[in-house]
Amino acid sequence: MRWKPHVRFGGRAGETHQTKVRQGAPVRPLRTVTRYRWVAARKAEGFPITAACQVAQVSRQAFGDWRSRQAAGPSDAEVAEAALVAEIREIHDEFDGTYGEPRITTELARRGRTVNHKRVERLMRAHDIVGVHKPAKVRTTIPAEDAPPLPDLIGRRFDPGAPDVAWVGDITYVPTGEGWLYLASVLDLGSRRLLGYSMADHMRTERVVDALTMAAGARGGATDGIIFHGDRGRPVPGW
Fold first, then answer.
1. Do residues 239 and 139 share a domain?
2. Given CA atoms 112, 113, 117, 122 in this order, what sign does their dihedral have?
3. Do both 91 and 146 map to the same domain?
4. Interatomic CA distance for residues 210 and 199, integer angstroms
5. What global pTM score does this model have?
6. What is the three-class DSSP state of 181?
């Protein structure tokens, strides 16, 4: 893997900084303000302003205007925007980082501050304020129309009073950084003990077989007469 120094200023109102990136990897364009900051940093290092402005793709006049505004302090508009960003952060933190642009815009309006949703979205993006996105639900039980009807031997009696009278099983899913992880489990209703489980990135029948095998092993293979109750579904025909 080769690495090389890379400086790139691209895109509308883009900016970047000097860094090392993997060869061929895309570089995210940044904002124009940071172009000015980059030029200022190069000026402080003794580089000619004209050359630095050419690299940053900004005019020397625009850089000079920005420096003048910096020296004069924040404008009324900048102060107002900073206050709005602070209020957005306050709402975001108050709701444990779960609120995104739609709900933050609604909450601002509820507090008496009417702000265009596009402005809220822009400020949140500029200041890396991101709401929690709920992962899509995965349906783990799809009734199989061609499956023969089976009697319900549990009859909603979920407290048999003794171990190894009835076991129940289910499949659930867990979101991970690499995709969905499917977990099959077997629980003894009498003792409330987890007897067996199996995990994989799919919902094929072997997940259930492995969980049941572990449960049977936990009971020394003595499974005669035990009722097993589970969902009936096409994804796992052996469940």
1. yes
2. negative
3. no
4. 9
5. 0.40
6. strand
